[in-house]
Protein: Transposable element Tc1 transposase
Organism: Trichonephila clavipes
Amino acid sequence: MKTAGWSTRRVVGQVDRSECAVRNCWGQWTREGTHARKTGSKATRKTTRRENRRIERQALVDPTVTRSTIRADVGVAIVPQTISKQLAEANLKSK
């Protein structure tokens, strides 16, 4: 649509996306010739599989253990949200 000379606002009306999304997509198309998302752009894991198992095991052994206690026991500099995320991925609920 943009290559046919359509304005950004006209494209927005047709594709039902935000103006920012259309501009970003068009900018990527003109720079790289593609609109696809880049692979490998996810955030990297901060914990290893072993540390993840240790987090899960502590939650199973003592369901009332706090995230700060788990963080201290694992010995890795991670934020409490990382622990909650790992417990959620393991289908465990934090207290």
